[in-house]
Amino acid sequence: MNTPNSNTAKPSFDGFAQHVYPFLELSSFHRTYYQVLEAFAQGRIRKLIVSVPPQHGKSVGASTILPAYMLGLDPDLRIAIASYSGTLASKFNRRVQRIIESREYAEIFPDTTIKQGTKPAGYIRTSDEVEIIGHKGELLSVGREGSLTGNRVDCFILDDLYKDAMEANSPVVRGNCWEWYTSVVRTRMHNTSRELIVFTRWHEEDLIGRLMATESYRELHSFEDIDKVEDGEWLYLNFEALKTSPATEIDPRNEGEALWQKQHSRDLLLKRRKLDPQRFEAMYQGHPASREGLLYSSSFREYSTLPRDIVKRGNYTDTADTGSDYLCSVCYAVDSDGVIYLTDVVYTTEPMEISERLVAAMLTKNDTRIAYVESNNGGRGFARALQRQLPRVKVEWFHQSGNKVARILSNSATVLHTLRMPNNWHLLWPEFYAHLTTFKRELKANSHDDAADALTGIIEKEISSSERKIQRVKFI
Prior knowledge:
Layout (H helix, E strand, L loop, with lengths): L12 H8 L7 H14 L5 E5 L6 H16 L4 E6 L2 H15 L2 H6 L20 E3 L6 E6 L11 E5 L5 H4 L2 H15 L8 E6 L7 H8 L2 E3 L14 E5 L27 H10 L1 H7 L17 E3 L6 E9 L8 E9 L4 E9 L3 H14 L4 E5 L4 H11 L4 E5 L5 H15 E4 L2 H4 L1 H8 L12 H26 L1
Parallel strand pairs: 1-6, 1-8, 2-4, 2-5, 5-6, 7-8, 9-15, 10-13, 12-15, 13-14
Antiparallel strand pairs: 3-4, 10-11, 11-12
């Protein structure tokens, strides 16, 4: 029997990839992604979930190059690739086989070979199964809900178990996928088996969502996190198409930067987000939200033009609590019936010195007469800066002491009943739109509550305070 390749010097995964795929172009994002996959191949990571936007090369790395690399490191490894269909899984298998039989692969891993034609006899090589000559290793492929009877698996690679939005939005398909995972995938694993789940997200209750809701996981922010994982814990890595989360060692981009600018530019991604903000949040940002359990959904009423009987033009600003929070500043107009029309929004994570200028310009543009600024977390300084720039605007700051959860929930019906959005608000303020229309009733499940908090504040200022005044007059 040949000496296992694992006894020889191990090339880096990205170096291996470029050797066997010489036309492969690796951006900085791909190199980071490949470093994480290399840690998985080496066994440093045993349970890995990666969420990647569509058409960003996730399958080339995880389901084509990675299995070949792992079988080179350990020819006794038994790997299974699964996808939403047996046809796609078989395609991955064939691509791996072509790499293994290439001259470039033999230069690095000469001991990992597969059947050529009919020789050697006795070894299996089909589009769904191939065996490594002289070793126990093999590569299997299976479609979702397919059988793996009798096969022990050392490593599962699950790549896109849902074909499209229709499948992911079907409770039946999601239920069948979960049943298949628990009854087939988990039952073919042993104590040291590894799992890699690499998806484009479609639904919050897809396989990734259910696993993260039921099992322990750690978000991967730095390479040191790899060695901090506890037994049985998942490592979770989400690559946003447009950066909105805080910069980390794994993803050091600035806010708004595209993940793969050369292939999917920021401008292109912004256009995609305008077409369908909710789907963009799921597929491209990795933040899906189902319609069930949403506080507002898409139930906001819209308007095309402002009425003539506008009696007040105001603004409500909630400054950011932390570096990852959004400053949310909303200009609005109130008619004689008390209906509130949103006219402009600044929704940003830019530092205060930039957001001050943005808000000041917006207040001037919208002919705002009074602005309310929460004084919590630096809001008083923000309000004073606005007042200096806009002496003709009355700027009032106040301390918000009410419980945020109770405030947002108790005012949600009034928000929907009283507020009006411009009919193209999803194009004007796409992030603001996405965060509101995907906002969950279970507030702890939301990444950002800044938009919902600001709308609640407007209602409290314009409706609740007016009701209190009326009640005092009646009492007197």
